[in-house]
Structure formats: C-alpha cells, structure tokens
Design brief:
Blueprint (H helix, E strand, L loop, with lengths): L13 H7 L3 H44 L7 H6 L4 H20 L14 H22 L3 H33 L4 H57 L2
C-alpha cells in the first residue's frame, strides 16, 4: 500500500530538478505561463469582489427605488449609493429629465410633474440611460479579455514547450547514441511539465471567463429591466 502515498514528481522536490534541467527556451515558456496564471488569479479575485459589491449595491438601490412613490424619492439613495450601476443609470435619466424640464420652462420654476414630455423626450431620456448602461458594462468587463487571452493561448504555449521538450529528448538520443530512460527522461519531463503548467493556467481562466460573461449578462438584463421600470414610472407621473 506504500505506493498509494508516493507523490508524483511534480508535487515533490524533484519538480525543481525538472526546472533546473529544462532548456532556456523551456524556462522562458514556463515563466510566461506562470505570469499569465498569477495575473489571471488576481483578476479573478478582483472581479469576484467587484461583482459581489455590484450585486449588493444594485439590490439595495433597487429595493429602495421599488418602494418609491415618486421618481425623485430615490434621488438621495442614488447619490449615496453611486457605486451601483443602477443608481448611475437612474441619475443619468433623472438629470436628463431635469434638463428637459428646464428647457421647456425656459429657465423658470420647475413644475411638480414631469409634464409636458413628448415621445421624443422619452427617447432622449432612454438614450441617456442606455449610454450610461453601456459605459457601466464597459467598465465591468475591463480585464476580462485577459482571461480569454490566457484561456486561448496558454494551452498552445504549453504545447510549444512540450514540443521543445520532446525535441530535446530526441537530440539527447542522437548525441549520446542511446535511447535509455536516463537519456530521454529530462526532455520528456520538461515536455510534460510545460503541458501541465499550460493547462493549469488555461482551465481557471476558461471557467472564470464564462462566469464573468454570465454575470455581465445578468447586469445588462437587470439594467435594461430597470430602465423599463424607470420609464414606466416617468410616464405615470406625466399623466
């Protein structure tokens, strides 16, 4: 049963022996993959915290907005919770409505109701909110492209290191005229290590990229629904 407790070479001290015997090009490939993996994990944790905060802030603001009887009732909450994309979309729409009212009243005192707004005014307000939504989604998807790059390129970089390792193994056979395990083992170990490191960098990046895209879709859908809810309240107050 002792063989059950024997760790593979990559998880034991022999890992450093493999790296030390790896060619300069192989070390370069491993270094790039290692950096890509570290950066990917930094982005993953950053996005996890960022999206968690967005979820909480959006929920808090939307609950307050849903309880509001009038459009302006959520203004204070929106200003105090400006980190929420929904709050920013709300402020964009509310400010656009305020400007339209000022223009229609020619700088006079604002009317209590959001009247008179016509169909073109509603479209202007929606465009302003859509623009803010696009900006917010663009901000939230920053750095996600690196995860996609890592997911797509890391396996190929690992494959490149694998090919180089196998080439080194065959070169050693040709130089020494022997195909013994002691001759080919370092090259094969280098090749397999590059494959493992490449997959180790790519797999978390693929999972995180798909998760981030799904969260962005949820943010986009909830924001579009909020815009409809906002415009519905605007039209009710304009009656």
């Amino acid at each position: 049963m002792n063989h059950l407790f024997i760790l593979p070479g990559i998880f034991s001290g022999s890992l450093w022996k493999i790296v030390s015997s790896t060619s300069l090009f192989g070390v370069f490939i491993l270094f790039i993959l290692f950096i890509m993996s570290i950066v990917s994990w930094v982005i993953i944790f950053h996005k996890w915290r960022q999206y968690k905060n967005v979820d909480n802030d959006n929920h808090r603001f939307h609950q307050h907005f849903h309880r509001s009887q009038k459009l302006k009732d959520a203004l204070g909450q929106a200003k105090s919770n400006s980190s929420s994309p929904l709050a920013k979309i709300y402020l964009s729409g509310f400010n656009e409505i305020t400007q339209l009212k000022e223009q229609k009243n020619q700088g006079g005192a604002l009317q209590e109701k959001i009247n008179p707004l016509n169909k073109d005014d509603y479209e202007i307000v929606e465009m302003a909110m859509d623009r803010t939504l696009t900006e917010e989604i663009g901000f939230l998807e920053k750095q996600i492209i690196f995860l996609a790059t890592t997911a797509n390129s890391a396996p190929f970089l690992g494959l490149l290191g694998t090919v180089v390792g196998i080439m080194n193994a065959f070169w050693s056979i040709g130089e020494r005229g022997s195909a013994s395990l002691a001759i080919v083992a370092p090259g094969i170990a280098e090749a397999l290590l590059a494959t493992i490191v490449g997959l180790g960098a790519a797999i978390p990046a693929v999972i995180a990229f798909n998760w981030a895209n799904n969260k962005l879709k949820q943010f986009n859908d909830s924001s579009n629904n909020f815009i409809l809810e906002f415009m519905s309240l605007v039209k009710k107050e304009s009656r």
